[in-house]
Amino acid sequence: MAFVLSLVVMPGSTLAYLAYGVMxxxxxxNGALGRSSLLGYMSYAQESASEAxxxxxxxxxxxxxxxxxxxxxxxxxxxxxxxxxxxxxxAYTMVFGLAAVVAGLGAFLGYRLPHLQKTTD
Length: 121
What we know:
It is built from five helices and no strands. The protein is mainly α. The chain has two domains: 69 residues, no CATH class; 45 residues. Helix 2 runs antiparallel to helix 3. The radius of gyration is 20 Å and the shape is extended.
């Protein structure tokens, strides 16, 4: 909120510089967490797959990641369509509610994955 306010109302003010710094820090943490979680997904897929199936697992994981990268565009298109159909602000509630349900389902299914045993080489 402070970031938008600083850009619109007070460009060049102290609040604007503070908002830029906070936004930079948030984006830096988001990028680091996103890339580190990708490392975990790849490691899990490599450890859980047999030698013969490992390329298929990694390929499927990359395909899902590429598809997931398009979801903000799909969500925005759905919101535009629903607003045009007269849903108004409820369009945001519907899309973000659906995203919360999908995230919850993913967490539920993720916790049901088998735990891998550590192996020593």
